[in-house]
Amino acid sequence: MLSRLLRSVAIAFIGASLFVPIAEGQTFTYAEECISKVDNATVHVPAEADSLPGGTPIEAGDTLAVYTAQGTCAGYGVWEEGNGTTFAAAGSDSLDITDDGYSIEEALKFEVFDVSAGKETDIGSGATFAPCDSLGVPVCAEGRYEDGTFHQVSDFRADSTMTKTLTLADGWNFISIPVQSDLSFEALLPTCTSGFFYTPGEGYTTIEGDETLPVGTGAAVQCQADTTSVTGTTVSPTIEVEAGWNLIGSVEDTVDVENITTTPSGILSSDFFRLPPGQGYEPAASLHPGEGYWIKVSEAGTLDLSGGSAPLARSSKAADESAEAHHLVFEDASGRQTKLLLKEGLTPEQRSAFELPPIPPGGVFDIRFASGHKAAPLASEGELERSATKHRMEVQGVDFPIEVRLEQESENRRFVLSTEDNDFTLSGEQTSVQISQSTGRFAVAAAPNPREFRLGAVYPNPIRGQATLEYALPKEAIVTIAVYDMLGRRVTRLVEEKRRTGVYQTQVDATHLASGKYFVRMQAGGFRKTRQLTVVR
What we know:
Distance between the termini: 78 Å
Number of helices: 6
Structural class: mainly beta
Radius of gyration: 34 Å
Largest sheet: 5 strands, mixed
Strand content: 35-45%
C-alpha cells in the first residue's frame, strides 16, 4: 500500500479549507464555492475515530489513505494527535498524472500505514459516517464518492464481506477462492468442466460438482475463458499445510512471499510456484487473490499470509546454484518455453533447490528431468573418459516442432540430446537444433571434447547429391577443408576459418560435380588428412 500512497503526491488537498473560519464580510456561499464546485470529495477523520478493528490505535505519524477498487491510492493524510486528519479523495478526472481516481458512486475504501510497525492495515469499506445534521455543512455522503461531497468518519469496523473477481483462461487454471463462499464448484464456476484438489501423499483428487472450494486451498480447474465474481466473508490469513507439496490459495490481499511467516519456523523447503495459463511452472514473488500456488514444506504447520514484517526463514538457493551452469532452453511451436540446467559438481542437496511441483494434470505444458527437477549434475571432462550419465527427461503438452537451444556462459562443452529415434549434438558452434518428430521422452548426456585431430569418413560414399563429413579439433585452430579432383585441382572449399575445440559437421554438395573420384583434404595446424570421395550419376 505504501507504494500506492507515494503515487498520490500530486493530489491537491482542499479538504482542510472546510475548517477555516469564515471571515467577516464574506459574500459568497461557503458550501457552494468550496464543496460543490470541486472535482473531489473531502474526507475528515476526527481524533475520536482513533482505533482500528481489533483496537489497534492510530498514532501520530501514521498515514491514512483511501483507495479505489482497482487498488489505486486516491488520497491520503497524516494523522495528528488530537486533530485526526483531513484529506481529499480524488475523482478520476482530477489528477493530471493519472485517470485512476474514484468513479461516481464508487465505495470509499480505507487503509492505515502504521509507521512504527512498518505495515499497513486494510480496512476496506468498513467505516461508519456521521449523519449530515451533525456536521454543520450542507453537503455530506455515506461512504460513496461523488464530486463535492463531504465525509466524516465516526469509527472503523471490520469489513468482513467483500467481492473478488476471478479471471479464467481457456484450458487449465490454477486458482483459489479468496473469500469464504457457500457456492458449490459448479455454481461458482459454471464454465469449468472439471477440477482437482491435491493432497500430499495421495495426489490429485477430483472436485465434485456440489463441493465448495475452501479459502486457502488451491485447485486445478479446466474452464472456458471467463470472468466471474465471488462474494463472501474474509477469513483468517493462516493456512494449514502438510509435509510435502501443497497446492494452496491466497487470501483477500496480495502478499509478498518474503513477508510470509511459518509455524514452526524454517519449514519451507521450496520456492512458491505458480503456473500461468499455457506456460510452465515459474517461481512466484507474490501471492495474489484468486490464484493457486505450490509450496513444499518439511513438516506439517501453518503459513501466515497477513504480511507481517518478519522475513521467511528460507530464501531461494536456485539463483545462486544457477551460476556457471549450462542451460537447455526448450521452445515449442506455440512459443511456450522452459529452461533446464546442467552444472558440474551439483550435489544432491544443491539439486533439491531445483525440485519442481507435481506434474500438472490434463496434458499441461511441462518439461523436466525424470527425477522431478529442473537441474541435473554434469560430469567433468575427466569423468567423461570413464562414463557419461544420460539424464532422462519427461515431456508433456508440447506442440512440435520444438527448438532446443544451448546457452553457455563458461567453458565450451558438448552435449548429445537423444530422442527415441535420433541423436542431436549441441555445442558452442552448434547452439540449437529443431526436433520435428513428436516424442514424450528426451535424454541428454555430456559428450567429451576430442583428444586428437580427426577427419571422419564421408557419408554416404559413393555420393549422388549431399553427404556429411565430421571432423574434430582437440584445441582451437584455423581449419581448411576442401575437395580436389584427380588432377589436384580444388573444386570446392568446405571450411576455412578458426574454430574452437569440438566436433563439427559440414555438408558436401556433389550436385555440380561430374562422376568420378575426388579427395577431401583437411589441414589444421600441423595436422593433415585426406579422404577419398566417389561421385556417381
